[in-house]
Amino acid sequence: MSSELNQIASWSLRWRIVLSGTLCLVAALCAAHPADAEVQAEQRYQMALEAQADRDYRTMLELLRQAATEGHAEAQEMLGMVLLTGPTLYGMAVKADRCEARQWMHRAAAQGSETAKVQLTLLNRLRASPAGRNACE
Hints:
It is a single chain. The chain is mainly alpha-helical. Helices cover about 75% and strands about 0% of the residues. Helix 2 (about 40-55) runs antiparallel to helix 3, helix 4 runs antiparallel to helix 6 (about 100-110) and helix 6 packs antiparallel against helix 7.
């Protein structure tokens, strides 16, 4: 009976060692790749909307740029609109830039945004450049 207890204790000890080693490995991997470090474009876009509601326009602009760069069509469209209106709606935190707005609208339109297509038409009419020249070059 004593040898059976020794075998069970030995087996139990081995499993505890394996289990604790596995837990340590998982903890190390989680520490190396925290889940919240990989914020997706949609999340950035939602955070930009929250920043807009809080009137934190610098943060809004930064988050929109990040989400738009990651290919989020709504962020591209909104960034284009924000850059079109600039200080008119967002104060001195946002500088108006028709050329950059046009680039973001092109990207959003390429992804099927009807709003971006309409805005591009408007932007093309507003260009203040001599015939045959692109104002954004």
